[in-house]
Write a structure and sequence with these properties.
This protein is mainly alpha-helical. The chain has 2 domains: 85 residues, DNA polymerase, domain 1; 131 residues, Intergrase catalytic core (hpI Integrase, Chain A). Helices cover 59% and strands 4% of the residues. It has 12 helices and 3 strands, in the order αααααααβββααααα. It has a 3-stranded antiparallel beta sheet. The radius of gyration is 23 Å and the shape is globular. The mean pLDDT is 88.
Length: 302
Amino acid sequence: MSNTELIQLFKDYITNERGYSENTLSSYLNDLYSLIHFLDNEQFGDLETVSPRTARFYTATLHENYSPKSIARKISSVRSFYTFLSKEDIISENPFLDIELPKQEKRLPKFIYPEEIENLFNSISTSTPLGVRNYLILEFLYGTGVRVSELCNVKLSDIDYFQDLVLIHGKGKKDRLVPLHKRLIDELTDYVITTRQDILKHSNNKDNKHLFLNFRGSNISARGVRMVINKILVNSGEALKISPHTLRHTFATHLLNNGADLRSVQELLGHSHLSSTQIYTKVSKEKLQESYMKAHPRAKRK
């Protein structure tokens, strides 16, 4: 089979059977095309004929241009691809099966402090419909810990105003219910009744059911949300570098710092494995140590 045919088979599999998002699909395809580029340059044949020796050589070349994290992602992508081909009996063995992933430096997730969050909220002018929307986007990201793609996919029908919940459509078609605090529920109610209707006037699709809209009245994109956060940062004057995902980290860290249990935070974030959530406990331990060093009489002595 040709490279194009193999990639199409894999694309159909991860899209239809695995339910991966467009961003995940794009990452997989980019990593596969990197391998194809290498095979073409070195005249090593096509995807179906890659040997374990070729796989080792390819991995070695990645170390010349990529960080350990990027290398690990690229190898994981092509390993998944060849695992699929093996299960489909297209190849007899996975050439990347025994390739060791480089050790990565574990970095603590970035978060911002409560007073910095409040400064961001206070900097937003809510005198216009888009200002109200921007305020609510920040409130929703920080108040629910959702991924930016999840926020963009929230529809009006996903909000349960009676139980103060929102249905989040997560990665891999895994849905979860996330609580909404009273302030957020009140703000959502006002937004849907008034502000959203004002923004929707600019749309050709008056039946749009998505919660958050761009200035044209269409569904807001992940890029659009990032632009909103950047605008808020500029207007606030805060010397911070944050993204929507930073607010997800902040949500988890603040919950743990204020006594939430790890399992609950895992459910709220939509993590399949507890180990994905446990990294936030390291952040909380740093906060705990900082508080200890400031408060304990013996720790403050010179």
